[in-house]
């Protein structure tokens, strides 16, 4: 599994997520993030589309189906970003603790 490169505190990617769960475009423009999250995101979007087609088609109005279809992937990507950021911060803290001992 590829490792995430730590983000310096003064970098533009150090900005927090809006509302704590919305995706940040600058974070998702990083290649190392897509190497880790790309396959998971593609699998989720395919499964989400299939499940919507199976369970929602015909039960709710078209506009409601469109809102549900759009909100699912946005929330998934936002929460995945939150997880990756927490993991990145943990690695950064471990790296800083390791270099301060030397």
Concise synopsis of the structure shown:
The chain is mainly α.
Question: Layout of helices and strands, plus pairs?
Answer:
Layout: H1 25-28, H2 31-55, H3 62-101
Helix pairs in contact: 2-3
Which structural traits does this protein have?
102 residues; mainly alpha; elongated
Structure, described:
- Helix 2 (31-55) runs antiparallel to helix 3.
- The mean pLDDT is 78.
- The protein has 3 helices and no strands.
- The radius of gyration is 17 Å and the shape is elongated.
- The longest helix has 40 residues, at 62-101.
- 68% of the residues lie in helices and 0% in strands.
- The protein is mostly helical and 102 residues long.
Total strand count, please?
0
What would you call the structural class? mainly alpha
Question: How many whole angstroms does the radius of gyration measure?
Answer: 17 Å
Summarize the helix and strand pattern as letters: HHH
Helix content: 55-70%
Number of helix segments?
3
What would you call the quaternary organization? single chain
What can be said about the biggest beta sheet? none
- Beta content: under 5%
Distance between the termini: 27 Å
Which consecutive residue ranges, at least 5 long each, have pLDDT under 50? Answer: none
Shape: elongated
Mean pLDDT: 78
């Amino acid at each position: 599994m590829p490792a995430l490169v730590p983000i310096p505190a003064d970098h533009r990617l150090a900005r927090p997520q809006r509302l704590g769960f919305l995706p940040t475009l600058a974070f998702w423009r990083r290649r190392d993030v897509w190497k880790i999250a790309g396959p998971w995101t593609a699998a989720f979007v395919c499964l989400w589309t299939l499940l919507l087609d199976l369970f929602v088609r015909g039960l709710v109005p078209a506009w409601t189906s469109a809102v549900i279809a759009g909100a699912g992937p946005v929330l998934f990507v936002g929460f995945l970003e939150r997880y990756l950021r927490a993991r990145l911060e943990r690695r950064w803290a471990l790296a800083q603790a390791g270099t301060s001992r030397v």
